[in-house]
Amino acid sequence: MSNNAHPSPARPSTFFDSDEKARRIVEAVSRQALEILNGFRPPTSLSKVLVPQEQESFAKRVSCVNAYRRNAGIKVAPRVSVGGVHICRVNDEVIEANSVVRDSLRARFVCMRWEKKRSGWKITALELG
After folding, report:
1. CA-only gyration radius of the chain, Å
2. Burial of 26 (0-12, 13-18, 19+ CB in 10 A)
3. Strand 107-117 with 94-102, pairing
4. Which residues are within 8 A (CB) of 104 and not within 5 positions of it... i.e. 6 or more apart?
5. Angle, alpha carbons 49-52-57 (nearest 5°)
6. pLDDT band at 43, cuts 50/70/90?
7. What SS3 string covers the chain?
8. Residue 11: predicted pLDDT
9. 122, 49 in Cβ contact below 8 A?
10. Residue 13 has what pLDDT?
11. pLDDT band with cut points at 50, 70 and 90 for residue 126
């Protein structure tokens, strides 16, 4: 008996194919977001994964935080640690994730919503507490 079923074409690998890959990317983005907020990376560092509206919103927040810190004379050490990464698969095209990031001043909660677009996975919402 012959099997006429055609094998499905291999899907390109993405960083949300496995929980381990997803954790690594969420951790990396969380770290980069705090490094941007602390002035150790340029605001455009996440432009490949942020949708344009979110990139603009994040850049405005970075500008405000940096102006406040400059005026108040607040210095932050460059070391950032990330822990407590949690991922929730809403469906095949939406993933929500959060993590706790710490710098020399405080701990923050980072939340992000990833959506599958034609151009790949993009962050449509990024919040730093």
Report:
1. 18
2. buried
3. antiparallel
4. 76, 77, 79
5. 100
6. confident
7. CCCCCCCCCCCCCCCCCCHHHHHHHHHHHHHHHHHHHCCCCCHHHHCCCECHHHHHHHHHHHHHHHHHHHHHCCCCCCCCEEEEEEEEEEECCEEEEEEEEECCCCEEEEEEEEEEECCEEEEEEEEEC
8. 54
9. yes
10. 57
11. very high
Tokens of 77: 């050490």
Please, what is the average pLDDT of the chain? 88
For the stretch 57-115, pLDDT in tens is: 999 999 999 999 999 999 888 899 998 999 999 998 999 999 999 998 899 999 999 99
Location of structure tokens 């490949």: 48
Instruction: Dig out the tokens for 112 from the structure.
Output: 């992000």
Alpha-carbon distance of 110 to 107, in angstroms, equals 10
* CA–CA gap between residue 29 and residue 35 (Å, rounded): 10
Cα(127)–Cα(58) distance, rounded to whole angstroms? Answer: 9
